[in-house]
Specification:
The protein is mainly α. Helix 5 crosses helix 7, helix 7 runs parallel beside helix 14 and helix 9 runs antiparallel to helix 13. The radius of gyration is 25 Å and the shape is globular.
Amino acid sequence: MLAAASSTQCLGLRDVPALRASFTDTWTVTVQTERAAVAEPPRTGDAGAPSPVRRLLNRSPLALLLFLMALVAQVGAQPLNNGDAWFHLRAGHLFWGSWSLWHPGAPTRFATSAWVPTQWSTEMLTAKVEDWFGLPGVAFFYGLVYLAFLVAVYGACRRLSGPLAGAVATGAAVFAASTTLSARPQVVSLVLIAVTVDAWWRTRADGRLRWWLLPMTWVWATAHGLWTAGVLVSLACWLGLALEGRLRGRVGRAFLVPLGSLVAATLTPLGPKLLLSQLAVSERTPMIAEWGATSFRTVPALVVGVMVAVLLVLWLRGERVGAMPLLLLVLACGWAALVTRLVAPAAVLVAPLLAQALTERLRRRTRVPTDRVERVVVALAALACVAGLAAAVPSSADRAAGVPDAFAPRLAALPRGSAVLVEDSSGAWMEWRFPGVQPVIDGLLDSYSVAYMRRFDTFWRAEPGWRGFVADSGARNAVMLAGSPATTALVEEAHWRVVQRDAPWVYLVAPGGAR
């Protein structure tokens, strides 16, 4: 329902066999090494110091991490092909121009509902990057965010685990987030969720409260609407630490972190009005697939399910579990089961828990701290990936992908204000590429009334009443998906003509229209 709501970009399922082979080799060598390190004492002249060979083998999980970094960098170097990216860029340009944060305009005349901007800072930043560097600059920017996500998750995992368990859990989280790694502000939230979780694990270890989470939430509330996830994570961690008795008489003071984070979000330029944006989402949830219940037949949800299952088995066979890890798992399971869009955030919560449990299962009862060599290797690999991105994107991401670009001359020739029937995210691309065109829908669904979205859904399904939607739109041109119910109805029942094809799209004109 409402295919225009979102489109996704994955790591590529066709790469799974190659990934499996790489992971198997790394896993086999490193597990044998870690178990041997427990079974045999170090054979060196210094008591308790591992041999150079064993030290090298113990770092073999870095190969897995570096492989993941290269894979994520490759995703960042691809052309922009997420439909939502286009309306975010268009909105960013309009915020720099005629739109106001307090009274934003409508992307088209069909968008008649008042709406609250929830990711305006990211949109304005990427729009400015596009002005300066074009589409390659936007791809590079999001490639940096993808790498930041991977490093943030690995850092959170390594705080609780050895390198092997940390790399494996990070890899699982990356696969679970594969459909989220696309050029849209949501990926910023994944980074900040990982940072928030890591901050509370550090508080659990040293008792120090991370007050910097408050200004971070302020920034987060301008960047993406999932800032509420950070508040929920802080609340769950605070409650867990209180139940574990780790706050030592500072329960009330520690509660100021989640409470202060919520207050900080209301102090953005939008003020308390930002909280109303959650109501707009709830009204439209039944009509947006991304906000619907999760199907565990999809790869990301299945990966999270496996992560949770393995974690529960390890917990049942291990030591007593504290309240904070248990509450984080409950929160993650709720997210993953109830909302498709929250599968990736759930994986971020589970990854450190899984890494810690795997480390204990490998009989490493104390975590293996990061050392200078590991930090230097990770930093150098990240810089190499950034350099590779910078070198690749000028040629690999200079054009949009997954859009009906062959129709550009026809769309450019339309009179300004012309309505165009669409049924997917190509409407957002049209608004970005041809600002004078008026597609009947785009990805900015908050700006469309619920009644209008229901009528659009009737048209999309070609159900009774679809003719009325077409007539009211005034559209004489359409960019549709070949073979869809709406396309079939337009051609066979309303006698629209196919005048051009650009798989998987067809360009249609109404009876009497120009060829």
